[in-house]
Amino acid sequence: MALKFEIVTPEKLVRSDEAYMVVVPGSEGDFGVMVGHAPTMSTLRDGALSIYATDGAEPETLEIRGGFAEVNENGLTILAESLG
Fold first, then answer.
1. For 35-49, what is each residue's pLDDT tens digit?
2. What are residue 34's phi and psi, to 5 degrees?
3. Which pLDDT score, from 0 to 100, does residue 1 have?
4. N or C: which end of the chain has fewer CB within 10 A?
5. Ramachandran region of residue 75, left (φ > 0), alpha (ψ -120 to 50) or beta?
6. Vertex 57, ends 53 and 59: CA angle to 5°?
7. What are the residues whose beta carbons fall under 8 Å from the beta carbon of 36, sequence distance 6 or more?
8. How far, in Å, CA of 1 to CA of 16, rounded?
9. Strand 21-26 and strand 13-19: pairing?
10. What is the CATH number of domain 3-83?
11. Is 18 helix (H, G, I), strand (E, B) or coil?
């Protein structure tokens, strides 16, 4: 089972996909999100969002500029101020 995630900026939906794990640059530090993660919300700092397609895969990275992350029963939503 894969984690469903979306990356959204004020302009558009950037990506809607599935992954094994996404590592998010939270304002309190990086945190990894996998299927079954507890519901949470966090502000984001500027940094790299790392997307792991499968266990042990090399990450795909996207630079984001601020925003919020929400984890709920539907997956992970990244509301980024912009992509860098």
1. 999 999 999 999 999
2. -130, 170
3. 83
4. N
5. left
6. 70
7. none
8. 16
9. unpaired
10. 2.60.15.10
11. strand
Spans in the chain with pLDDT lower than 50:
none
Residue 53: both structure tokens together: 């397609």
69: left (phi over 0), alpha (psi -120 to 50) or beta: beta
**Token pair of 60, please?**
């795909």
For the chain, state the CA radius of gyration. 11
Tell me if 49 sits within 8 A of 7, measured CB to CB: yes
Q: Kind of pairing, strands 60-72 and 75-83?
A: antiparallel
Q: How far apart are CA 59 and CA 22, in angstroms?
A: 9
Distance (Å, rounded) from C-alpha 35 to C-alpha 74?
A: 10
pTM for the predicted model, two decimal places:
0.94
Structure tokens that stand for 50 in this block: 């790392």
Residue type at 50 in one-letter notation? S
